[in-house]
Design goal:
Radius of gyration of chain A: 21 Å
Number of strands of chain A: 0
Pfam families (chain A): COX4_pro
Helix content of chain B: over 70%
Number of helices of chain B: 6
Keywords (chain A): Cell membrane, Membrane, Transmembrane, Transmembrane helix
Largest sheet of chain A: none
Number of helices of chain A: 6
CATH superfamily of chain B: Cytochrome c oxidase, subunit III, four-helix bundle
Family (chain B): Belongs to the cytochrome c oxidase subunit 3 family.
CATH class of chain B: Mainly Alpha
Distance between the termini of chain A: 46 Å
Strand content of chain A: under 5%
Subcellular location (chain A): Cell membrane
Structural class of chain B: mainly alpha
Radius of gyration of chain B: 18 Å
Largest sheet of chain B: none
Oligomer: heterodimer
Structural class of chain A: mainly alpha
Membrane topology (chain A): Multi-pass membrane protein
Order of helices and strands of chain B: HHHHHH
CATH architecture of chain B: Up-down Bundle
Chain lengths: 133, 177
C-alpha cells in the first residue's frame, strides 16, 4: 500500500513528467520505469524471482530437516523457527512492500503480530504448555 | 490503513487457532497422531506452490503499477490457479486423513488441526474468489478508483495468507509433537 504522495509519483512516472531519465523509457518505457518503480518498491521481475528462489531454497531446507530430526537434536526447533522467521520477514518486507511503505503500516502489522504472540504465549503458559512433563 | 488493521486483527485470529492447536496436538490416540498422519513431502510441495503464488501476485501488482492490463490479468489468473492447486492439495490431504480414520471429532488434536488448516483453506479460497473477480472486472474496465491500488490491496491479503501458511507449515507440520 503506497501513500498518496507515492501514488502521485507513480502517476508522474507513468505519464513521463518531471524526471530526466524518462527519455530512456524508450518504446515501452521499461528501463526508466523500472528505475522509478524501484524507488517506490516496485522492483524488476528478476528481483522478485531471486527473492522467490531464496524462499524456495529455505522451504527445501526446512523440509530436509524432516529426514535428519535425530541428527539435528536440540538444534532442530531453533533452526526451524529461524528459517520460518526469515521467510515471514522476507515476504512481509519485500512482497508486501512494507520495507518501502510508510512505517506506520509496519507498526500496525507487527504490533498486531507481537500482541498475538504475547497474548497466546501467556495463554499457553496458563495451560502449562512450556512446563516440561 | 484499514487493510493493515484488518491484517493485524487476522494475526490475532490465527494466533488463537495456532495456540489452540499447539495446546492440543498431543491429545490423540497412539495410532492417529501427527507423526503417523502427516505427509511432509506432499505438504512441502503444497507450501512451495503457495509460496510461488506470492511471486506471481507481486508480479501482478508490479504489472498493475505499470498499467499493463494484459500482464496484470495473466499474473492474477496464474496466482488463482496456484492457489486452487494448494486448496486442491489440502482437500486431498483431508480426504486421505479422513479415510485413515481421523475425523473432525476423533480427538482434540484432529479438531484443532482441521479447524486451523480449514480456516486457512477458507482464507485461500476467498483470496481465489477475489482474484478471479478482479480479473473479471478488470477485463470489463470496471475497477473502481486507482486500479493499481485495488490490485495491491488484494495482493496484501494474498501475501498475508502466504505468511500465515509459513507459520503453520513450521509449527504444525515440521516441529515434532
Amino acid at each position: 500500500m503506497s501513500t498518496t504522495a507515492e501514488h502521485s509519483d507513480h502517476t508522474d512516472v507513468e505519464h513521463g513528467h518531471g524526471h530526466d531519465d524518462h527519455a530512456a523509457h524508450g518504446e515501452h518505457g521499461q528501463h526508466g520505469q523500472h528505475g522509478q518503480h524501484e524507488e517506490h518498491g516496485h522492483k524488476p521481475t528478476s528481483y522478485y524471482v531471486k527473492v522467490a528462489l531464496f524462499l524456495g531454497v529455505l522451504t527445501a531446507l526446512e523440509t530436509a530437516t524432516y529426514w535428519v530430526v535425530e541428527e539435528l537434536g536440540a538444534f532442530l526447533v531453533p533452526s526451524l523457527l529461524i528459517m520460518m522467521a526469515i521467510k515471514f520477514v522476507v515476504v512481509a518486507s519485500l512482497f508486501m512492500h512494507l520495507k518501502w511503505d510508510n512505517k506506520i503500516f509496519s507498526w500496525l502489522f507487527y504490533s498486531g503480530l507481537i500482541l498475538a504472540v504475547l497474548v497466546y504465549a501467556a495463554f499457553l503458559a496458563t495451560f502449562r504448555f512450556f512446563t516440561p512433563t | 490503513m484499514a487493510m493493515w488493521l484488518f491484517l493485524g486483527s487476522e494475526c490475532l485470529l490465527f494466533g488463537g487457532l495456532i495456540s489452540t492447536y499447539m495446546l492440543y496436538r498431543g491429545r490423540h490416540s497412539a495410532e492417529l497422531g501427527p507423526d503417523q498422519i502427516f505427509d511432509i513431502p506432499f505438504t512441502s510441495v503444497s507450501s512451495f506452490v503457495l509460496l510461488m503464488s506470492s511471486l506471481t501476485m507481486v508480479l501482478a501488482v508490479s504489472a498493475a503499477a505499470q498499467k499493463d492490463d494484459r500482464r496484470t490479468n495473466l499474473w492474477l489468473t496464474i496466482t488463482a490457479l496456484l492457489g486452487a492447486t494448494f486448496v486442491g492439495g489440502q482437500v486431498y490431504e483431508f480426504t486421505v486423513m479422513y479415510r485413515e480414520g481421523l475425523g473432525f471429532t476423533t480427538s482434540l488434536f484432529s479438531s484443532s488441526f482441521y479447524t486451523l488448516t480449514g480456516f486457512h483453506g477458507v482464507h485461500v479460497t476467498v483470496g481465489i474468489i477475489m482474484l478471479m473477480a478482479l480479473v473479471g472486472i478488470n477485463k470489463r474496465s470496471r475497477v473502481p478508483g486507482d486500479k493499481a491500488e485495488v490490485v495491491e490491496m488484494v495482493g496484501l491479503y494474498w501475501h498475508f495468507v502466504d505468511v500465515v501458511w509459513i507459520i503453520i507449515f513450521t509449527l504444525v507440520y515440521l516441529i515434532p509433537a
